[in-house]
Amino acid sequence: MITIEAVREYFKSELKNKNFTIDRTGAKTIEMIGASFIADEEAIFGKPNDDYIDAEIEWYDSQSTNINDIPYGDEPPKAWQYSANEHGEINSNYGHLIWSEKYYNQFEQVINELEENPDSRRASMIYTRPSIWKEYNENGKNDFICTNSVTYYDRDSKLHAVVQMRSNDVIFGYRNDYAWQSYVLHQLAWELHMDAGDIHWQVQNLHVYERHFDLVK
Predict the structure, then answer these.
(1) Which of 199, 96, 175 is CA-nearest to residue 143?
(2) What is the pLDDT of residues 35-72, one digit of tens each?
């Protein structure tokens, strides 16, 4: 498994060699397909916005699926505005996906599973679902959930997580998603009276957009 530093060097090399793909807007991107590494740093490039991260986690905790409820700034971030319908509704409130009864209270399911069977390989929280093909663009949304699932393992007296993602932007996406996954891992570990272990980060498509190439340099 590669390190975060190896991920950085990969993107620097791809930028230097101008190995780009072109997205649907015509912008250049650098991508790593099938990325897998230990997420032991809070950012790959740049620095996290701690104030925004705190606000996003508070919004996830609320389980609201409306971006206008994010307690940050005068308006929601542009990325969320792009994902939402005209009323501000989205699919990807991660707290709603793991805590709500609608999605079977997966947080508690994982606790119960690991308490009953510490060696389990099915302590998973499933974030996306087949119906996303119909739901991602309903009523003008553009929100095909990026996280596929997260599975937790009780190994070596620690609780480890394997995060599996469909798509992850290196700059804002990784920073904010890492903060969320670390937050959930530590909550689970506290409930299970364990120490938090490693976060294994697996992404089908890890990418940097052209507007962030200066951070890679």
Answers:
(1) 96
(2) 999 999 999 999 999 999 999 999 999 999 999 999 99
Tens-place pLDDT, residues 160-196: 999 999 999 999 999 999 999 999 999 999 999 999 9
User: Catalytic residue numbers?
Assistant: 146
Q: What is the pLDDT of residue 23?
A: 87
Picking from 180, 165, 205, 168, the residue whose alpha carbon sits closest to that of residue 99 is 180
Show the tokens assigned to 10. Answer: 């990969």
User: What is the spatial distance between Cα 147 and Cα 98, in angstroms, rounded to a whole number?
Assistant: 12
**Among 56, 7, 91, which residue's Cα sits nearest to residue 179?**
56
Q: Model-level pTM?
A: 0.97
Residue recorded with tokens 């501000």: 88
Query: Does residue 108 register a pLDDT over 90?
Result: yes
